């Protein structure tokens, strides 16, 4: 194979980048440890260590000589696509640090560190008032960021671009406009037919955590996880951390009842992990060893979780092992299990939402954060607005702020513009499915035999291999033959539930 990086300036950039990569590597390990094994009181020292490393990274990235070198490489006329990809990613990172005054970066870092803890207690105690001043500050600083970063039409676009390069609120609104009513129709039909609606008795049954752990590892093994490059641990909120292209770590959760929450967390995070493990190995130590956007990353986790994990074929394939090990399944058939995996009903908590109602949760958050950034609504109006909008879209009303506006951690971290990437990912996962079915017509037969080799190869070749080389919109077009198209998602749901 041709060597991807040849230009001497790019090679020099990459050589110097290794220190930035190493800082990120260390930070990834610290984050992973904070959520898994660190004793509780370690948090104070850990957050100092973490923010100092972050500052160090910023220092290396914006160091005069390094930026000059990147600029010099930018001037080269005949760079190949790999080299252009490296520079695109670095230019984006440097641009943000250059445009935001250090005072602003520091203020935001400081307030979000405090806000995370205030938010946690506010949620436990159902007390929005204590969180409100922090949220006000976070939104006003984020608006400042948007103004420094610049935008054409809406300040929200500047923030959205940080997570989903090139995506604007116009795009997002268009996507929601095209799915909103049709999702409502699907939801109404499901509710009127009673097959997938209502509550499922398995949701209430308690499982043995040790046994569930065995099930999760068995499923991960069937999906083909490589023990030399992959770890599974436990955390309250499951996540994936990529230490590098040969070390991916996921976590899953064990609440003790409703075992599908644990199972689907494992499969979801497996999808994220696989993405990082299948990058072009030549991208090691480079800024390309990453997904191009959060939406694309989420497309992979959703693909494994929903398209594969919630399919009838998968359900039937894992049923014998599950039945043998999980006592709760004693009196349930394959069909019961399939219904349990795919129960649809309006609920208040986003992370537990089903495939059909999930995007309504995102729509509420998207509309609210967009209005807040623009200054059209005020933070103190949030709890009521939230409840009104949830009632409008889902027909149920939160009784407390803990199950309403306080449920997500994102805003406390300053992650504004993040939520739409979940919908982008969900839609793309169905688009990936459509494309896979063209190339692998016996896709579902393969799933029913728990054979994933060809599917993984397809994903590697089409998506994973390329890392962050192309902007997300370009990768989607190159690999899936068209722009993001919500049609496939709607069709997938109609096919499944009608
Ligand atoms: Mg995810």
Give the tally of β-strands.
Answer: 3
Mean pLDDT: 96
Ranges where pLDDT stays below 50 over 5 or more residues in a row are none
Q: Name the assembly state.
A: single chain
What is the first-to-last residue Cα distance? 48 Å
Output the CATH topology of the largest domain.
Neurolysin, domain 3
In the sheet with the most strands, the strands line up as 1-3-2
Description:
Helix 14 runs antiparallel to helix 15. The mean pLDDT is 96. This protein is globular. It is mainly α. The protein has 20 helices and 3 strands. The chain has 2 domains: 126 residues; 329 residues, Neurolysin, domain 3. The N and C termini lie far apart (48 Å). Helix content is 63%, strand content 3%. It has a 3-stranded mixed sheet with strand order 1-3-2, sandwiched between helices. The structure holds magnesium ion (MG). The site of magnesium ion has 4 residues, from helix 10 and helix 11.
List keywords for this structure.
498 residues, mainly alpha, Neurolysin, domain 3, 3 strands, globular, binds magnesium ion
In short:
The protein contains 20 helices and 3 strands.
Note the topology:
Layout: H1 8-36, H2 43-61, H3 64-74, H4 81-99, H5 102-124, H6 128-149, H7 155-163, H8 169-193, H9 209-223, E1 230-234, E2 240-244, E3 247-252, H10 259-277, H11 294-308, H12 312-325, H13 334-341, H14 358-374, H15 382-394, H16 420-439, H17 443-448, H18 453-462, H19 472-480, H20 487-497
Parallel strand pairs: 1-3
Antiparallel strand pairs: 2-3
Bound molecules: magnesium ion.
Magnesium ion (MG) binds at residues 268, 272, 298, 301.
């Amino acid at each position: 194979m041709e060597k991807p990086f040849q230009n001497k300036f790019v090679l020099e950039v990459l050589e110097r980048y290794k220190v930035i990569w190493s800082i990120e590597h260390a930070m990834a390990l610290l984050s992973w440890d904070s959520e898994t094994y660190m004793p509780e009181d370690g948090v104070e020292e850990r957050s100092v260590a973490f923010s100092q490393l972050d500052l160090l990274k910023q220092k290396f990235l914006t160091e005069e000589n390094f930026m000059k070198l990147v600029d010099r490489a930018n001037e080269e006329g005949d760079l190949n696509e790999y080299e252009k990809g490296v520079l695109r990613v670095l230019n984006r990172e440097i641009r943000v640090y250059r445009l935001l005054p250090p005072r602003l970066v520091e203020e935001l870092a400081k307030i979000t560190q405090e806000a995370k803890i205030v938010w946690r207690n506010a949620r436990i105690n159902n007390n929005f008032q204590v969180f409100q001043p922090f949220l006000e500050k976070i939104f006003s600083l984020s608006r400042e960021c948007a103004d420094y970063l610049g935008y054409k039409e809406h300040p929200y676009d500047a923030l959205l671009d940080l997570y989903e390069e090139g995506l604007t609120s116009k795009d997002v609104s268009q996507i929601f406009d095209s799915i909103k009513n049709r999702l409502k129709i699907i939801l109404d039909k499901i509710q009127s037919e009673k097959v997938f609606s209502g509550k499922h008795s398995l949701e209430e049954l308690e499982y043995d955590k040790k046994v569930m752990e065995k099930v999760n590892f068995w499923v991960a093994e069937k999906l083909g996880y490589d023990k030399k490059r992959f770890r599974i641990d436990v955390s309250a909120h499951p996540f994936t951390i990529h230490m590098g292209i040969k070390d991916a770590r996921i976590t899953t959760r064990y609440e003790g009842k409703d075992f599908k929450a644990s199972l689907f967390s494992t499969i979801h995070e497996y999808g994220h992990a696989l993405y990082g493990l299948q990058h072009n190995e030549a991208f090691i130590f480079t800024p390309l060893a990453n997904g191009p956007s959060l939406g694309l990353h989420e497309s992979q986790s959703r693909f494994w979780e929903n398209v594969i994990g919630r399919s009838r074929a998968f359900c039937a394939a894992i049923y014998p092992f599950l039945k043998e090990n999980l006592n709760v399944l004693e009196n349930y058939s394959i069909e019961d299990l399939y219904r349990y995996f795919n129960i649809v009903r309006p609920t208040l908590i986003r992370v537990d939402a089903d495939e059909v109602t999930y995007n309504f949760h995102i729509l509420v958050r998207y509309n609210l954060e967009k209005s807040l950034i623009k200054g059209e609504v005020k933070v103190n109006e949030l709890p009521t607005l939230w409840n009104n909008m949830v009632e409008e879209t889902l027909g149920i009303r939160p009784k407390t702020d803990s199950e309403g506006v306080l449920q997500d951690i994102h805003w406390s971290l300053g992650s504004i513009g993040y939520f739409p990437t979940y919908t982008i990912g969900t839609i793309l996962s169905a688009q990936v499915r459509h494309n896979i079915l063209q190339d692998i017509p016996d896709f579902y037969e393969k799933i029913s035999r728990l054979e994933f080799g060809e599917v993984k190869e397809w994903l590697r070749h089409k998506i994973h291999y390329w890392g962050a080389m192309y902007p997300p919109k370009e990768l989607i077009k190159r690999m899936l033959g068209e722009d993001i198209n919500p049609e496939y998602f709607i069709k997938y749901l109609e096919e499944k539930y009608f």
